[in-house]
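Lecture notes, unit on protein representations.

Consider one protein chain, 111 amino acids long.
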Amino acid sequence: MFLQNPRNELPDHFLAFANPTRLRILERLAKAGEVSVNDLAEYLRMSQPRISWHLRMLRLGGVIRTRRGGRSVYCSLDVDNIRRYRQRLDEMLGLSQPHVAKPKVREEVGA
């Protein structure tokens, strides 16, 4: 689980979403933007080590990014990376065409 292997990137990414606590973390980050690990622990009423474990799963899955500010660690959604994984899944399932230009539709006036 969560191995650093390009072959496992897509499964690891979606596995990151497969936990109610991690989904609650993502909801909080979506609403608040960047949040410290300690603030997340307080908000979710969980221990800091437990929150850090979930954040590690999200980070390895490419869902969040972290940065250190002094003694605190701050987390935020990695929206661009989430979008790339979603596009890869859509292409794999044949749900989207890889960047095909759409034909322009002419509007007739006075029809």
